[in-house]
Amino acid sequence: MKLNIFLLFVASLLLSCSRYAINEDGTDGTDNINVYINFQKNAVGDILDIDYPVRIYCVDKTSSVVTDFNYLKGEGIVATLIPGEYSINAFLGIGEESYSKVNDISGKPIISVNGSGVSDRPLMAAHSSINLEKQTEINLIPSYIVASLEFEFTNIPSEVKKIQVEVSPVSCGYQIEGGFSDRTQAASLECNLNNGKWLSGQKFIFPAEEVKTSVIVILDYGDEIKKYSYTFAEGLSVGQPYKFTGGYDEDLSMDGDFQISAWKMEEEIVMDFENEKPADDENDENEQDGEGEESDGSSFDEDIDVFYVETMPSANKIWGPFYLWKLEEIGVGEAQATIISPDQWYQIYKEGEAMEILKGYEIDGISGWRTFTKDEAQEFFKEFSNELDELNPYLEANGHNIFYTPNGNTRNRYLCENGEYAFNMFGSIEMGPAGKTVKYYLRPVKIIGLKVKN
Q: Quick check: helix, strand or coil at residue 450?
């Protein structure tokens, strides 16, 4: 069965059109200057039907300070700023239920999708730069910064209780001054049974462009799970609608016309799902695109989160908001890194409480943290117990919690091995079972993969 995909051509990729001064004196006797912001469909000036809410992020080019303004339907879009040079960054349809501003691993602010990486509403953006000296008006031409996904399955066995679709990689976010985050994740969406069809509805993701994208369809029978996967060699594209339709006849097959209302078509791509293989068989046979899953040549284990970097960082250095402790090269342009969170807790932990804290802990969009293992605890002690006078000032200067040594009658030990053991950071190493009435430090640790972008 052949799958025809029609690519979207977004009406303009230019994100700003024009700006001009309104009058000679726009300060009204104060240091504040008004910036009036208009949105239009194209350079001709056709009026754009604005999707509210609208949020404007104004970045001071000198201080990097971000000032944001939020506008609801019916409100005039005016930003009030002091004189200076700014980037003006507008986001349309940025509802708090779908999108949030967070800091990327690089420390740069990004817009991320809440929850499982999938939004129920699209997002548009436009960017411009101004040297603000007088009252100014800017005309912006927004464009979509998401891709659209929609799944529809028919003739699914009645025994199937649930259908879930996983798409990876997708970008973790979009930088407020333009461009996608290098960090990626998997997006997950569910299909609901409606009149004999399993439907996802139209969903939106930040695509990881020019990267092979895997789509896995999971059929949950209650007592059995079957997975089917496909790899798109060219990946998903921004502003592009993808509609998948498929049926079940001993195996899952797909077809689709990839047409979604209000999105235009540009070119056609054919995808063949006839020879698609269950995901469980991926390691048995890798075929060409269109005939099952193709390996991407990665050296990382499946359970390791992988982040793309411009250059490989160094060990024992602050990297983003983390302390990058160990770096092990595992392939060309690939390394496995052990990072340590800047945060820690000091308290008495009930049975399993330490791991529950780590389970719910997330920083910079990264979750899946754990304690030191026993081996890591011994290695960390050996490396740093006599070097804390150098390590701690470095951590403290970068806003990290320090590692504590005994103080009087306080032993100041750290949990390891899933909270079941504790170790010290001074003198000779002592490691023993963690007590239930003693305060310990809990410091999150995680292993990630790093890959240099080509």
A: strand
Instruction: Give the whole-angstrom CA distance, residue 48 versus residue 124.
Output: 12
User: What whole-number distance in Å separates Cα of residue 356 and Cα of residue 140?
Assistant: 47
Q: Reply yes or no on whether the pLDDT at 192 is more than 80.
A: yes
* Overall average pLDDT of the 398-426 stretch: 87
Q: How many angstroms separate the CA atoms of 209 and 236, rounded?
A: 6
194 three-state secondary structure: strand
**Which residue's structure tokens are 């679709």?**
165
Q: Are the C-beta atoms of residues 73 and 93 closer than 8 Å to each other?
A: no
Beta bridge partners of 439: 348
- Would you tell me how many other CB atoms lie within 10 Å of the CB of residue 70? 12
How far, in Å, CA of 87 to CA of 404, rounded? 43
User: CA angle at residue 302 from 210 to 270, to 5 degrees?
Assistant: 35
> For residue 138, which phi and psi values (nearest 5 degrees)?
-120, 135
Q: Give buried/exposed letters for 103-133 (b at 16+ CB in 10 A, else e).
A: bbbbeebbbbbeebbbbeebbbbbbbebebe
Residues for the chain: how many in total? 454
Cα distances from 307 to residues 59, 344, 393, 413, in angstroms, run 26, 24, 28, 32
* Residue 195: exposure state from Cβ atoms within 10 A (0-12, 13-18, ≥19): exposed
For residue 58, the one-letter residue type is: C
pLDDT one-digit tens code per residue, 214-234:
788 888 999 888 887 766 656
